């Protein structure tokens, strides 16, 4: 669907006769949990009640309460005409013509050029998805699943076939994670029903996780990346201190839940090994049961039913449990290193109300393009383009990248590209740097 940001909601910022006029100061006062306004294309909307019914969850839309949400609105909704009918009843007025286009001293020139760039990308068809690409991608996952069973049928259950089977299944699980990520963001097929069903199938039946759990957490991450209190991905539950602000805050308050000056070392023990086998699995089950997500629970059950039906004949019940635990252990390492190399070493701070481009570029970086890097990371080596345009299909990131880089160079916004190895080492290096900041603040009297 071609989007036209300047006229997404109709009017394109033009004054509507008879509507009530507001200032940014008035809008910014409505940013409480039970009182939330936001601005889209200079139109003011009261979303206080709508947040409870918002399909993406109340947090992702609430994170923009009291400010301009135009770029986030366009970024998350591939079909603006469909979403428009939900916004109309919430319209309470518009910004006074004397008010600037942007709030909180956001860079209006950057915002204008970014929206113009998006229009160019839309005209060039870079938001059009190739269903064939994703069908072939899904096909290669199914081939991997069958290949793992063929290995055991032909070579038995010795150490080498078992290890090979585990590696194949880990690869399938990791790649299924990248594919469900695509279905969660995109309308791969014109009928949203099929896209929704395939997302449930991939994340539920092929991975054993909840689509609703993933959507509500991940969209918050995209809305406000690397912002404390808004991005769940930087909520480390006191296990780590990250960035350059949080370590000092913890140190000044004499908070020491763990010896953070050694976090770059214990990261290898509690980070990659535990995030999927323990933390994600516990979150999935708890949320599905507490929110009564019975459909997601059924898909989750179908994954384990299929897995144990396939592997109990080879390994028995306890052997199959050991196999799935080992696969989760390996997959967790893959997931953590790929997802954190773009974010943990970047700026992590409290809300600063930056414009969309500056906010996303301060929280993300790219990894060099290669066939292996594209496949290994599910094209998340183009994290910058993915964060700027979440509904752009991954097979078009490389086409958009030169234009995004040119825009960043024009406005002096850093467009960072690293090698894969540098991305990995920067995770550990940034944890050590943050730990040292904490220790200095903690010991300071």
From TrEMBL:
<feature type="transmembrane region" description="Helical">
    <location>
        <begin position="266"/>
        <end position="283"/>
    </location>
</feature>
<protein>
    <submittedName>
        <fullName>Fatty acid desaturase 2</fullName>
    </submittedName>
</protein>
<keyword id="KW-0560">Oxidoreductase</keyword>
<dbReference type="InterPro" id="IPR012171">
    <property type="entry name" value="Fatty_acid_desaturase"/>
</dbReference>
<feature type="transmembrane region" description="Helical">
    <location>
        <begin position="303"/>
        <end position="327"/>
    </location>
</feature>
<comment type="pathway">
    <text>Lipid metabolism; polyunsaturated fatty acid biosynthesis.</text>
</comment>
<dbReference type="InterPro" id="IPR005804">
    <property type="entry name" value="FA_desaturase_dom"/>
</dbReference>
<keyword id="KW-0812">Transmembrane</keyword>
<keyword id="KW-0444">Lipid biosynthesis</keyword>
<keyword id="KW-0276">Fatty acid metabolism</keyword>
<dbReference type="GO" id="GO:0006636">
    <property type="term" value="P:unsaturated fatty acid biosynthetic process"/>
</dbReference>
<feature type="domain" description="Cytochrome b5 heme-binding">
    <location>
        <begin position="19"/>
        <end position="96"/>
    </location>
</feature>
<dbReference type="Pfam" id="PF00487">
    <property type="entry name" value="FA_desaturase"/>
</dbReference>
<dbReference type="InterPro" id="IPR001199">
    <property type="entry name" value="Cyt_B5-like_heme/steroid-bd"/>
</dbReference>
<dbReference type="InterPro" id="IPR036400">
    <property type="entry name" value="Cyt_B5-like_heme/steroid_sf"/>
</dbReference>
<keyword id="KW-0443">Lipid metabolism</keyword>
<dbReference type="Pfam" id="PF00173">
    <property type="entry name" value="Cyt-b5"/>
</dbReference>
<dbReference type="GO" id="GO:0016717">
    <property type="term" value="F:oxidoreductase activity, acting on paired donors, with oxidation of a pair of donors resulting in the reduction of molecular oxygen to two molecules of water"/>
</dbReference>
<comment type="similarity">
    <text>Belongs to the fatty acid desaturase type 1 family.</text>
</comment>
<keyword id="KW-1133">Transmembrane helix</keyword>
<keyword id="KW-0472">Membrane</keyword>
<keyword id="KW-0275">Fatty acid biosynthesis</keyword>
<dbReference type="GO" id="GO:0016020">
    <property type="term" value="C:membrane"/>
</dbReference>
<feature type="transmembrane region" description="Helical">
    <location>
        <begin position="132"/>
        <end position="153"/>
    </location>
</feature>
């Amino acid at each position: 669907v071609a989007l036209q940001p300047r006229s997404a909601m109709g009017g394109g910022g033009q004054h509507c006769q008879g509507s009530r006029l507001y200032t940014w100061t008035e809008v910014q006062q409505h940013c409480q949990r039970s009182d939330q306004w936001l601005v889209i294309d200079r139109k003011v909307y009261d979303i206080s009640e709508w947040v409870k019914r918002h399909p993406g969850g109340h947090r992702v839309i609430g994170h923009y309460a009291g400010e301009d949400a135009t770029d986030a609105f366009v970024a998350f909704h591939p079909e603006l005409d469909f979403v428009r009918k939900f916004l109309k009843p919430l319209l309470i007025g518009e910004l006074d013509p004397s008010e600037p286009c942007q709030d909180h001293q956001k860079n209006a020139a950057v915002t204008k050029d970014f929206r113009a760039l998006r229009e160019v990308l839309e005209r060039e068809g870079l938001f059009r998805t190739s269903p064939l690409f994703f069908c072939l991608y899904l096909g290669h996952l199914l081939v991997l699943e069958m290949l793992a069973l063929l290995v055991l049928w032909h070579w038995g259950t010795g150490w080498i076939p078992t290890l090979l089977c585990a590696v194949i299944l880990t690869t399938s699980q990791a790649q299924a994670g990248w594919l469900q990520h695509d279905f969660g963001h995109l309308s791969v097929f014109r009928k949203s029903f099929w896209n929704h069903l395939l997302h449930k199938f991939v994340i539920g039946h092929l991975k054993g996780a909840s689509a609703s759990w993933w959507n509500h957490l991940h969209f918050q991450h995209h809305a406000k990346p690397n912002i404390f209190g808004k991005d769940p991905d930087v909520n480390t539950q006191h296990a780590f201190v990250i960035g350059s602000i949080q370590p000092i805050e913890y140190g000044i308050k004499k908070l020491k839940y763990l010896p953070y000056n050694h976090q770059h070392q214990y990261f290898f023990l509690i980070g990659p090994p535990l995030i999927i086998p323990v933390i994600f699995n516990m979150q999935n089950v708890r949320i599905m049961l507490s929110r009564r997500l019975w459909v997601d629970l059924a898909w989750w059950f179908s994954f384990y039913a299929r897995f144990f039906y396939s592997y109990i004949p080879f390994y028995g019940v306890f052997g199959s449990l050991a196999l799935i635990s080992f696969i989760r252990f390996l997959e967790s390492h893959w997931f953590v290193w790929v997802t954190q190399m773009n974010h943990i070493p970047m700026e992590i701070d409290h809300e600063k109300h930056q414009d969309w481009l500056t906010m996303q570029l301060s929280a993300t970086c790219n990894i060099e393009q290669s066939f292996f890097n594209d496949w290994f990371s599910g094209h998340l080596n183009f994290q910058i383009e993915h964060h700027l345009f979440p509904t752009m299909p991954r097979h078009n990131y490389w086409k958009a990248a030169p234009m995004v880089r040119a825009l960043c160079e024009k406005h002096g916004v850093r467009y960072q590209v690293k090698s894969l190895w540098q991305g990995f080492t920067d995770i550990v290096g940034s944890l050590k740097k943050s730990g040292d900041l904490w220790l200095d603040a903690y010991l300071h009297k």
